Amino acid sequence: MNRQITKLAVASMILLAALIVGTTYWQTWASAGLAEKQDNAIQRVAQFRIKRGLIRAADGTILATNVKRKVDGQTLYFRRYPTGRLFANLVGYSTQGRSRAGLEQSENAYLTSSNANLSTIFNKTLDKIKGVTITGNDLVLSVRPSVQRLAVQQLAGKCGAAVVMNPKTGKVYALASQPSYNPNLVENHFNQIKATNAPCHPAAPLLNRATDGLFTPGSTFKVVTVTAALDSHKFTPESTFYDPGYCIEYGKQVSNAASPDGPVESFGHPTLAQGLQHSINSVFCNVGKALGAGTILEYMKKFGFYKDPPLETPANEKLPSGLYHGGRLFFPSHPATQVDPGRLAFGQETLAVTPLQMAMVASTVANGGVEMEPQVLNRVVDSGGHTVVRIEPQKLGRVMSRQTASEINSMMVAAVNDGTGGAAAIPGISVAGKTGTAETGNSGINTTWFISFAPADNPKVAVAVTLQNQTGFGGTTAAPIAKVLMQAVLSSGSKK
Amino acid sequence: MSLRNRELLNLVVVGALTALGFASVYIARQSVVSTASLSYAAFFLALYLVAHLVARYAVPYADPYLLPIAALLTAVGLTEIYRIRPGDAFRQGVWIIIAVGVFAGTLWSLRRDYRRLESYKYIFGLTAIGLLVLPALPGLGATVNGARLWIHFGSLQFQPGEIAKLCLIVFLAAYLREKREVLAQGRLKDFGPLLLIWGGAMLVLVETNDLGSALLYFGIFLAMLYVATGRLLFTGIGLALFLGGSYFVYTRVAHVHERVTIWLHPWTDHKVYCALTGEMKLRQDCGSYQLVKSLYSIANGGFGGTGLGKETLETSAGHPLIPSLNTDFIYSALAQGLGLIGVSALVLLFMVFVLRGMRIALLADDGFSKLAGAGLTFGFALQTFIIVGGVLRIIPLTGITLPFVSYGGSSVVANFVLLAGLLLISNRANAPREA
Fold first, then answer.
1. Which of residues 9-38 of B touch A (CB under 8 A)?
2. Which of B237, B242, B329, B393 has its CA 20 to 30 A from that of B294?
């Protein structure tokens, strides 16, 4: 029997050796991939031994810091957010029980020093060998607490969002979403967050409405349409239209006023410029029909619609803007037959956009037609104070000619000086803006908008404001908020 | 150096390693070296010295490496169990004392000639079947993780399969020794017992819903059949029958089907129906939760491990991150703490144990001893492969224990009986012949 026993011994050795091979696979080959899995709670909890990097605002205000606590003889670093709900939707949270969100999630590699930067790797390895606590890299953001605080105050008690950015650099000054939540409560008092009340359903305090909220853009979208109209050379600002006070869409009247039951208001024979200034739906309806949905869609894509906006927040907290069907982004294969060009032109159809995307639209016009990448990150700094990475402004590309941008700029100035956006006017400074009042399907309940920039001749700030469930108009509800936010940036100067 | 002195020296080294392991966990958890760690190690060493003294008297010519390896494996297990849940380590310690007692008792009572067990083979056979059927009895059996492997006596839980395995090996060794020549001729009517045992294994599979146990029993049977007859064809036919039967069960029994699905596709990108809660969930949050979390634990260990006591096993609020950590998944905890280097050394220990066991079977001079030795050793190897292979996603995961390491009374006791058996066979093989 000895021959068989020897063979059995060899078989047993092969079985057991397979275990070493298997372990090798998981601990060397596959370990990096597993560490990145979203549900890898071990990795997440293990990272609490790392002294996470701080997150600071542009002026140095600490937005996220650490609290050292001894648990089971181990020193762990828990997160604390000194500014509470002020930057919650942008900065997010890092917890053991509920994972991570916001910049805490997307910039985790820097915050835990697990990024691929050579000097970071060197320092971390040195710390590991010495048995010293690993310290993460700090983030310095471009956001300004003073502007952010104003934005949150202005939105308080409402559901909505505001984005304030520098149109020339793309740096974001404020990114507010209401209702918000206190990130310090996420780990142990999540029920309090779930119980948040707001004048919208669901209240969704964790949702970053600025980047992840989809709203019908209404008339603010006319800026996109007019870009297509002028840049394609099919129209000039002086092109005239006949306005009967409504436009015929599929044999039905679509009136100019936000409310279909309102009185018919006719502007006679307005030009395209006047159409934007007074937000005349019938003008844009005809522009849309003349251009065709395909051309408008083409310019939407130039503006960055149909793509996640390139902000540093996590991919799962951003949504692309565009036409939506049944909750999914809709890519029309035959726009001419699938999309109603008239309703698309004045921002209805099945359009759904993020406030960030509309802020990018305003910024692009302000920046002479060149779109800048929106950024909240200025610098990454290591624990010794040395800059690891400086995030330089990035051009996304030219959306329209300088000429077109300048023409739209003038039209938007007219809209504020003598049009629908009067509430955003700032004495002594020329402001460009566009209102939006989008129908929600519930009569009398609108999503209101204002997108703007100032000063019009040398823009230093661009803004998008969105409010949900409003009974008023964009010009009366959102424009005053945009005004306050622009003033806040302009009065503080354009320091970086 | 005499065999027993060599064993003693090895045990002293194991004692020192145990002290180191406990000290490591203590420093990591409390930042102090407590005398408690040393007293744990001292107690441990004393216990094994008793076992050694019994061996010195009862089996003076037995292999000197098996007992120290078993001691080291239990020490590693106890250290890790202590790290995971100190309360369990105490209970495990008590079980080890009981197991060493049973070990000493077995050596003592069978020291003259264990081969008399051969004449009781049918009693062993029937006991094995009886023990296997026990968990299926209503009121006595308990379902843990969908598999009926446990029986309850009041608050005491017991896994009879571990003891059944040993009884089965003794029965098979005796039966095959008697019938091996007849079986080797390969007449069709002699396949009766083979089919009977195949049926039995399938029955166990259906009754307990446990693929791993069925694979273990049937694997031991096939290995011993091969050793007895030398006919690889039988093993091939047996394996084919087993695979066919398993496939049939896989298509019919939802629990087994689920296990295989989890094995093949532990991660899903979209939500799938979760039978545990009745909701739509990602599979990694439902059926494959345990497997996936255990893989994360192994991966977190990396090459060198986090160090004993520094593993991340629970949130700081104390919620466990990996379920069944001290039984089925103790290997994943060890892999995180000791890293690739550490657990490879651990697997090498298992390999040395198996090689020594096979060597004993080779040296034994009668058929019963050879078959029993090979059966016990292969059972040990196969059980290690099934649980660790399951944890490593080499085969579908089933909940059986890692010999000597996992937490669990029945397992520790059964493995010490197995150890006693191997020592007895080895003692007889090495003993000087009387003229």
1. 28-31
2. B242
CB of A229 closer than 8 Å to CB of A235:
yes
A41-141 folds as Penicillin-binding protein 2a (Domain 2) (3.90.1310)
User: For residues B84 and B88, what is the distance between their CA atoms, to the nearest angstrom?
Assistant: 8
> What is the pLDDT averaged over residues A318-330?
90
Smallest CA–CA separation between A360 and chain B, in Å? 32
Burial class of residue A415 (count of CB atoms within 10 Å of its CB; 0-12, 13-18, 19+): buried
- Give yes or no for a contact between B81 and B88, defined as CB atoms under 8 angstroms apart: yes
The pLDDT of A351-360, averaged and rounded, is 95
Pick from A16, A25, A114 the residue to mutate for testing the B interface (most B CBs within 10 Å): A16
Contact between B115 and B369 (Cβ < 8 Å): yes
Report the DSSP beta bridge partners of residue A325: A328
Position B433 scores a pLDDT of 73
Q: What is the pLDDT of residues B302-326, one digit of tens each?
A: 888 888 888 888 777 777 888 778 7
Q: Whole-angstrom Cα distance, residue A175 to residue B424?
A: 77
Mean pLDDT of A384-392: 89
The whole-model pTM stands at 0.72
The number of residues making up chain B comes to 435
- Cβ distance A97 to B347 less than 8 Å, yes or no, reads no
Contact B312 A97 (CB under 8 A): no
- Residues in chain B closer than 8 A to A76 (CB atoms): 316
Q: Average pLDDT of B35-40? A: 72
Q: Does B270 touch chain A (CB under 8 A)?
A: no
Question: pLDDT grade, residue A250 (50/70/90)?
Answer: low
Domain A145-182+197-383+392-491, what architecture?
3-Layer(aba) Sandwich (3.40)
Q: Which residues contact A374 (CB under 8 A, 6 or more apart)?
A: A163, A165, A170, A172, A309, A310, A311, A356, A359, A360, A363
Q: Which of A5, A15, A43 sits opposite B374 (nearest CB)?
A: A5
Question: Does A34 sit within 8 Å of B295, measured CB to CB?
Answer: yes
- Provide, as residue numbers in chain A, all residues whose Cβ is less than 8 Å from the Cβ of B343: 23
Give Cα separations from A340 to A331, B192, B250 (angstroms): 14, 78, 54
Closest CA to B170 of B426, B338, B433, B417: B417
Q: B434 vs chain A: nearest CA distance in angstroms?
A: 24
Q: Which tokens belong to B203? A: 């029955």
Domain segments of chain A as ranges: 41-141, 145-182+197-383+392-491
pLDDT at A442: 79
Asked if A41 and B293 come within 8 Å (Cβ–Cβ), the reply is yes
Which of chain A's residues have a Cβ under 8 Å away from the Cβ of B367?
Answer: 1
Residues 296-325 of B with CB under 8 A from A: 296-303, 306, 310, 312-317, 319, 321-322
Let me know: does A312 contact A375? Beta carbons within 8 Å.
yes
ipTM of the complex: 0.93
Query: Which residues on chain A are in Cβ contact (under 8 Å) with B388?
Result: 19, 22
